[in-house]
Amino acid sequence: MLSWPASNGVRAMKVFAASFLALIILTFCAIDSAPANSMTSTIAIGDARINFTVEGGRMDLPQVEISEWVRAAAESVATYYGRYPLEHVTIRIASFDGRGVRNGRTFGRDGGFIVIRLGSETTAANLQSDWMLTHEMIHLAFPSVAEKHHWIEEGISTYVEPIARVRAHHMDAAKMWFELVRDLPQGLPAAGDQGLDHTHTWGRTYWGGALFCFLADLEIHRQTNNRKGLEDALRGILNAGGDIRFEWGLEKAFKTGDEATGIAELQSLYDRMKDRPYSVDLEAIWRELGIVRGDNFVRFIDSAPLAATREGITWGSGATAHAHSATSATRGSTALRYRAVHAGRTARLR
Q1: Angle of CA points 155, 156, 160, to nearest 5°
Q2: Which H or E run contains 72?
Q3: What DSSP string describes 290-332?
Q4: Dihedral sign from CA coordinates of 288, 291, 292, 294
Q5: The CATH number of the domain covering residues in 39-139
Q6: In angstroms, rounded to a whole number, what is the distance separating the alpha carbons of residues 279 and 89?
């Protein structure tokens, strides 16, 4: 039997206790971060790496379908911004009993971190029509701002998400416009409105923010003869280091975006909308853009005054008929009909 002096024995017991406690902590951390029934994969988008882990119980979808869902969302975001916003992002996908995608949240920690829930009975078709993961990934591409400006964070994701999916050919252009025309009125000011910085309702936060983005996009296209659009402003902000990992003042972000377009539209529009209701005649705008919407259809009029701007917003600054064959049935005066009005985005969680 080995023996130590009393002082050495106390020291040895302290070392043992500390080591044992560290082992317990590491064990629980490992259990929390990598459940026994989890599946982890990595996809590459350009120079970016996206690690995602599917946690929880049974999942009807094969891993390859989940990978394609993550890849499609990432491709959409990279197409709109010219690159994926961050070099490394971690996504934790938690399963629940049922079908669909729920409760997405995005954080700036750990280089970029997204948590989202996926139903165990979700089908591949459900994932092909999902908007939420793209919405969350777009949050990565804008700096964190003060809470009263939360509307711009949600507004960008709400407005850009369907456009990004269209440009990556993961959504139909006519469906995008159908939903925008239907849903954007939810962002208009109601009685008692005090502007975007002071009216924190769901409609004004998500769709009021989207309305701001749409009006800015429209005006940038108008003033540059469709050579630039909102994506140029947002790319300028991102490329200047303005991503979710960093806190910026909103006016710094808008100044950076305006410098990228050469049009002082973001700051000017913010001054008009931040602390008072701002009247917008959306019906007149749809007419100028050449968009006619019925209960279950949308029709494009190419002879409308701003038809070229509509195409620019849809496909990008200076857009031509580069890839419109995929949507040619929706152009001109042809109407694209839907069997039912889509339910739309009834809730968005950051």
Answers
A1: 120
A2: helix 63-81
A3: TEEE-SSEEEE-TTSTTHHHHHHHHH-TT--SSSGGGGGGGST
A4: negative
A5: 1.10.390.10
A6: 39
**Residue 297, both tokens:** 């259809």
DSSP code of 264? T
Structure tokens at 307: 């038809």
User: What is the CA 79 to chain-centroid distance, rounded?
Assistant: 13
* Token pair of 266 as six digits: 């973001």
Phi, psi of 5, rounded to the nearest 5 degrees: -60, 155
Distance CA 195, CA 273 (A): 6
Question: Domain coordinates of the chain in residue numbers?
Answer: 39-139, 147-337
Alpha-carbon torsion (218, 219, 224, 225), positive or negative: positive
Digitized pLDDT (tens) for each residue of the chain, 350 residues in all: 333 333 334 333 333 344 433 333 333 333 344 444 567 899 999 999 999 999 877 888 999 999 999 999 999 999 999 999 999 999 999 999 999 999 999 999 989 999 999 999 999 999 999 999 999 999 999 999 999 999 999 999 999 999 999 999 999 999 999 999 999 999 999 999 999 999 999 999 999 999 999 999 999 999 999 999 999 999 999 999 999 999 999 999 999 999 999 999 999 999 999 999 999 999 999 999 999 998 888 999 999 999 999 999 999 976 433 444 333 333 334 444 432 222 234 343 33
Q: What are phi and psi of 341, to 5 degrees?
A: -70, 130
Three-state DSSP at 35 gives: coil
Cite the beta strand spans of the chain per DSSP E.
39-45, 48-55, 88-96, 101-107, 113-119, 291-293, 297-300, 335-337
Q: Which two tokens stand for residue 215?
A: 């009006």
pTM (predicted TM-score)? 0.83
